[in-house]
Every structure is written in C-alpha cells, then in structure tokens.
Amino acid sequence: GDSVTQMEGPVTLSEEAFLTINCTYTATGYPSLFWYVQYPGEGLQLLLKATKADDKGSNKGFEATYRKETTSFHLEKGSVQVSDSAVYFCALSVYAGGTSYGKLTFGQGTILTVHP
Amino acid sequence: NAGVTQTPKFRVLKTGQSMTLLCAQDMNHEYMYWYRQDPGMGLRLIHYSVGEGTTAKGEVPDGYNVSRLKKQNFLLGLESAAPSQTSVYFCASSLQGGSTGELFFGEGSRLTVL
Q: Residue B98 — very low, low, confident or very high, per pLDDT cuts 50/70/90?
C-alpha cells in the first residue's frame, strides 16, 4: 500500500539556520505530493505541493522537489524564523482515474522548534 | 469567511457514552473527511464523503459512524466510546478529491474517553 516516511523529530534550530525535513514515499501509480503545516492549536494547512516528477513546490520561503528516482520530497528552507515553529506533515495522493477519491496518506509529522 | 468549523472543541466522555462531532463548511465543497490525529502516527482517515447523502469508510472506521444529510455538514458519531478513541479529531473539506485539490482543515476537536 501507499506510505509516507518522514525523518524522526523533533527538530530544534536557531533562527536563520537552514532547514531540511526528509520525506520518502512508496506508492502504486503516480502520486501527487504535499507538505502541510500545523501551527500550535490550529488545523493543518497546505504549505506546498507538486503533482509530477521534477516539479518544485514553493511557498513562504519553503521548497520541495518531487524526485521520482529517489521517491523523495524533502522540505527545505534557507533561513528559518521563530514563526516557522510548527508540525510539518508530508503527504501523498494517488489518483486512480474516473471519480476516484484519491485519498491523502500522511506521514507521522515532524515537530520543528526554532529558537531566537 | 468561517471555512471549516468543528464543534465541540473539547469533550470528556466516560467509557460507553455516546457523542456526535459536527463539522460545517461554508465553501460549497463536495468532499468532506474525518481524520484522527495520534502522537507519532500522523493523521488517519476515519470516514469520508464525496457528496451529499454519501459516506465511505477510511482506514480506521471501526467504532465510528457518519452522516452527510446536508452538503455543508458532516457528522461523526461515537455510539459507545472507548479509551482507544481518545484523540484529536480533524474535519476537512475539498472542492475536488485529495489528489488534485487542497484540503481545508478545521481547528480540531480534542476528545478524552475515561
């Protein structure tokens, strides 16, 4: 079945440090890949997505590139801020055609804490 | 614009009690979902709906029931609560299915079963 594996957390960084959160996946077919972010006390919200191989999703200084050859979608940011402290979820969805639901499969989440 | 609203936000139950979580969305979305979030396990899909009057089972449906009588509402019921159902529950909606459309999440409902 489809699955998503994220790097173990929590991750603690100082402000302006470089961030990488690893995400690898297994999927039947050709998945779309997503990063969702959950700020304290809130629901998840879409951070970025990529729908085909070699696509790069980007938003708010975060980037992730869909690497089919390594089945990866690592999240990166060049300079993190305290406000980036949150839980980050990698997810995938495989469209099976027609009116297929294409459910989202989530990784376990990575807690990021950024100190001033 | 309220988006996705869940009620109640907190609830404590005793084993065997029943309750209903209400999810309401004002974006005219076709798809609605109920997830549960447990530490170290990410989000797991309980039930979902692809339109008014339809429901389907997700990964972990046992012990839960759902109804979608109106397009904007998706109810999650626990008929006989168990401690294993202690979790944070998230409702989400999307215009299209999850493979192409963004999911919009509510703020969550924290349920504790004693």
A: low
Instruction: Determine how many CB atoms are found less than 10 A away from the CB of residue B110.
Output: 14
- For B70-89, the pLDDT digits (tens) are 999 999 999 999 999 999 99
All residues of chain B having their beta carbon less than 8 Å from the beta carbon of residue A88 are none
Instruction: Identify the pLDDT of residue A102.
Output: 61
Contacts of A98 in chain B (CB under 8 A): none
Contact A33, A92 (CB under 8 A): yes
Strands A110-115 and A11-14, by their bridges, are parallel
For the stretch A16-41, pLDDT in tens is 999 999 999 998 877 889 999 999 88
Give the residue numbers in A contacting B (CB under 8 Å), as ranges. Answer: 4, 31-32, 36, 41-46, 49, 51, 89, 93-95, 99-104, 106-109
**Which one, of B82, B90, B79, lies nearest residue B112 by Cα?**
B82
Pairwise CB contact (< 8 Å): B50 & A101: yes
- Please, which residues have CB within 8 angstroms of residue B36's CB and are 6 or more apart in sequence? B43, B44, B46, B60, B87, B88, B89, B90
